[in-house]
Amino acid sequence: MKRTRPSEVRTLLTERQIIPSRVLGQNFLIDQNILNIILASAHLNEDDHVLEIGPGLGVLTEHLIRAGRHVTAIEKDPRLAAYLREAFAHCPDLQLIEADALESDLPGLVQRHGITHVISNLPYSSGTRMLVELIDCPDRPLRFVVMLQSDVAERLVAQPGSKAYGLLSIHAQLHYDVVIRKHVSPSCFYPPPEVRSALVELYRRDRPMIDLRDEPHFRELVKWSFSQRRKQLGTILQKAPRQVVPDSHTVSHQLAELNIASSLRPEQISIIDWGRLSNKLQR
């Protein structure tokens, strides 16, 4: 079957008595042009190992395998998993895992399988959580090409000073160059989702945007600060727990030494300045 042809997709779902689930974020890609953009953005080599979360009917899986890549796919829906086992029964380069990706050890899977790429039409309800877990894992994949809600995509690429800039922007951009490759209409999916989508590419930096003395501390600092993003930085740090600010009495002096105004709010501070501040506090 042609998995990007809406009539054939509908027929297959009817034959299998599968009603796409909104809860599971089952919106199947049916646009060949978008599929081509995904594959072109992936820049795959023959030695790459791809992780696909939520393969659905296998429209992307089919092309990844056809290109000779090894694919590990995680599918939660037992009905779709059964279909994929039949459809790709003679494909030794596909390992299908029937499981909930949210309850899986994604960092362990990346390490065990040597995952280099994550290429997925991620479920809207849980895709952000999965992406953050993979971005933060010790063996970070080289590249992500993922479909997400447009508002999540805008947060990933947001720069200091914008309303969208926050924890997700900093998590992603510390280790990855992030770009939106394409905004995608709901009509490119069956059934069409209620929100617009965007195709995002994340490519791992050779080095983090700033070298950190203690990355867990950096994350705690940013998390604490953005939990009070309407307040000024000086006020936020004065009231921070000791694991974030070991000596609150010296905060004003430390900010002055870094030339970071205490009147700034968290969304006005660059990733590099967050890193400089974390390193300073750790001294």
Give the SSE map.
Elements: H1 6-15, E1 28-29, H2 32-42, E2 49-53, H3 59-66, E3 70-75, H4 78-87, E4 94-98, H5 106-113, E5 117-121, H6 127-135, E6 143-149, H7 150-157, H8 167-175, E7 176-184, E8 189-190, E9 197-204, H9 215-226, H10 233-238, H11 251-258, H12 271-282
Parallel strand pairs: 2-3, 2-5, 3-4, 5-6
Antiparallel strand pairs: 1-8, 6-9, 7-9
Helix pairs in contact: 9-12, 11-12
- Determine the CATH topology of the largest domain: Rossmann fold
CATH superfamily descriptor of the largest domain? Vaccinia Virus protein VP39
Please write the string of helix (H) and strand (E) elements.
HEHEHEHEHEHEHHEEEHHHH
Count of separate DSSP helical elements:
12
Shape: elongated
Compute the separation of the termini in Å.
62 Å
How much of the polypeptide forms β-strand, as a percent range? 15-25%
Using the 3D structure, state the CATH architecture of the largest domain: 3-Layer(aba) Sandwich
Domain count? 2
Question: Cα-atom Rg, whole angstroms?
Answer: 21 Å
- Broad structural category: alpha/beta
Give the tally of β-strands: 9
Mean pLDDT: 94
CATH top level of the largest domain? Alpha Beta
How are the strands of the biggest sheet laid out side by side?
Answer: 4-3-2-5-6-9-7
Note the main sheet.
Answer: 7 strands, mixed
Question: Percent helix among the residues?
Answer: 25-40%
Q: Low-confidence segments, ≥5 residues, pLDDT <50? A: none
